[in-house]
Design brief:
- The protein is α+β, with helices and mostly antiparallel strands.
- The strands form three sheets. Strands 1, 2, 3, 4, 7, 8, 9 and 10 form an eight-stranded mixed beta sheet that branches.
């Protein structure tokens, strides 16, 4: 196994839940453009790297919260990519202004001010943290958060880094991947398998609180004569290994 690079890229992603009329909750998924260097063509949760604007805003609004930049980045990326605002307090119509300002390249703090909006970072529930160690041009140290979609939230794809979005249950995404109709990378698959266990956002949040976040770095281990890509067995994941030959690593 190759060592983790000295400077992985800090990133954050948001698993957004929406209540379904019947059955398990739906999750917001976006499909990455095929030309993207990382996870091109894959279904992922909204998210991306933590930028300097997120760090600056965190220092202003939550200086005592060590993961505040990641929470801010997860919220910002979800607004940019899907037009869904989590932990967002503003007048009606402010979301469109905020999203347009972000797409124009403004720092998040400036965009919030122009929209007259504030953030509540406590609406995000820490769920996981993944830091792969395989050879890749970009290695991301990604924090995963859970959040409930606001009532009536209408998601729309940004058509830049992503080509489409969909609300699907975790089981539906896994079924599409197994049928060859969608691509999901290894961390997304493991997290979807875990999310498929829960009947609602409250149950997922309770499980997250029962398993304190510990960085997951997949490792290769030979089991029964087959090289498996594995994760620790005590973090709440129902599936903890997959043949290396079938694992899509991003």
């Amino acid at each position: 196994m190759r060592p983790v690079p000295a400077t992985p890229i800090p990133a954050a992603t948001l698993v957004v839940f929406r209540n379904a009329a019947f059955g398990p909750p739906e999750l917001l998924m976006v499909e990455r453009a095929k030309a993207m260097a990382f996870a091109g063509g894959a279904l992922v949760f909204p998210g991306g790297r933590i930028d300097s604007g997120d760090e600056a805003l965190a220092a202003l609004i939550a200086p005592g919260l060590d993961d505040a930049p990641a929470r801010i980045a997860a919220i910002r990326e979800t607004i940019e990519e899907a037009g869904v605002a989590i932990g967002f307090d503003a007048e009606p119509g402010a979301l469109a202004t905020l999203r347009a300002t972000l797409h124009a390249g403004a720092p998040f703090g400036e965009a919030l001010a122009s929209a007259g909006a504030t953030l509540d970072l406590t609406t995000l529930v820490p769920f996981a943290r993944w830091l792969p160690a395989h050879a890749h041009a970009r290695i991301f140290d990604t924090r995963f958060y859970l959040a409930q979609a606001p009532a009536g939230a209408a998601a729309t794809v940004d058509r830049t880094e992503n080509t489409r979005l969909a609300w699907m249950t975790a089981a539906e995404v896994l079924a599409q991947a197994d049928a060859g109709a969608a691509t999901i990378i290894y961390p997304t698959r493991r997290n979807l398998e875990r999310l498929a266990l829960f009947t609602d956002f409250a149950a997922a949040s309770a499980d997250a609180l029962a398993h304190p976040v510990r960085t997951v770095t997949p490792f290769v281990e030979r089991r029964d004569g087959v090289d498996q890509l594995c994760i620790p067995a005590d973090l709440g994941y129902p599936v903890t290994s997959e043949p290396l030959t079938s694992a899509t690593r991003g």
